[in-house]
Every structure is written in C-alpha cells, then in structure tokens.
Amino acid sequence: MKTKSMWSFRLSTAALVLIPIAIGINYIGKTIAAGLKLPLWLDSLGTILSSMLAGPIVGGLSGIINNIIYGITLDPVSTVYAITSGVIGIVVGALAYKGWVNNFAKALLLGLVVGAIAATVSTPLNMIFWEGQTGNVWGDALYAYILSQNGPIWLASFLDSIVVDLPDKLISVLLCFFIFKGLPKNVKRLYQNNQRFEEL
Question: Where are the transmembrane segments (predicted)?
Fold first, then answer.
C-alpha cells in the first residue's frame, strides 16, 4: 500500500467513481432550486460531500466539471462559475482534512467560511460578465436596492452574492456534515489516504 498526499492527483478507484456521483447530486440540486425559484443555489452538495470524503482534488474536479456540464446543457451562465465551484471543493476538502468536520461547531464555521469565500470569488465574475448581478431573484433585488440608494456597484454585487451564498453554503455544508457523519465507517475507509490508488 502507498500513502498519498491530500493534493495528489493519484486517485483511488472509489474516488474516481465518486466524481460523477457528486456531479449528479450537484446537477439535481441546482435544477430543483432553479425550478422552485428558491433563494438558494443547492449546486454544491455533491462537491462538498465528495470533498469531505475524498479531499480537495476530487471535490474541486467535481465542482468544475459539474458547472461545465450544467452550462452546456441547461444554463450557459453556470460555466463561468466553474472557478467558484472549484475553489469551494478545494477549500472544503483541505479544511475537512484538517479536522473541520469533526464536530458540529467546526462544520458551522466551515459553512460560514465557504459562503464568504464563494461570494468573494463570485463577485468579480459577476461584475465582469453580468454587471454585478447573480441571476438569483432574491440577491438581484438587494442589488437593485443598493444601487437605488447610490451605493457602489462593487458593494451591491458583493451583497447580491453574500445574501445567497452565505445561507446556501452554510445549509449545504451542514447537510453534508450530517450525511458524512451518518455514513458507515467502511464507506469512509474507501476514501482514506492509505488506499491503493490509480493514476488520473
């Protein structure tokens, strides 16, 4: 048996299989949220869970590939945010590896950190491609209000992102935390670093 780094691209068979499963979860979550016009994205559940299980590389790949597929098939806007999804996967995977999913309090903090990072990464993308808006009806309403009060566009754009990203990522991380904690130990062992791996 070999031991691999958290940042290794040498992935176990179980980790490789997890990527399309995570993409499917993301895809379904985002489709449901969009269809119901929820004030959430729900497009990171698979990314976050796969990051907790298999680390930042698997989580990052899951997020990036998901956004590309969703962008090609349903919503071209999503392709741009492959960057944000990749960062979410990397951050969750790295912090989970460091013990941030050991208990509820740490998972709560992880959700807040991920939400803040997602909004920070997405804001310049929103400003470059969509005049600062997110496309979420709730966030864009706040964006319009801030501008109507002569607020700066960067602040309106950031608040547009944070008002959706913070609760979305917090809820997503906590849901995945409970799923992760509820998984049988033999399932978690499939993704431990001492498993045999294959070259990606």
Answer: 48-68, 80-101, 107-130
- Helices 82-97 and 45-54, interaxial angle, to 10°? 30
- Residue 2 belongs to some domain of the structure: no
Q: Is residue 30 part of a domain?
A: yes
Domain that holds residue 91: 10-199
Does any domain span residue 128?
A: yes
Supply the CATH number for residue 49's domain.
1.10.1760
Where does residue 18 rank: exposed (0-12), middle (13-18), buried (19+ CB within 10 A)? buried
Confidence of residue 4 (pLDDT cuts 50, 70, 90): low
**pLDDT tens for residues 35-64?**
888 888 899 999 999 999 999 999 999 999
For 131, which DSSP code? T
Tell me the three state secondary structure of residue 199: strand
Is-above-0.85 flag for pTM? Answer: yes
Residue 135: burial class (beta carbons within 10 Å; 0-12, 13-18, 19+): middle
Instruction: Please check whether residue 4 lies inside any domain of the structure.
Output: no
| Cβ 64 vs Cβ 72: under 8 Å | no
Give the chain's domain count. 1
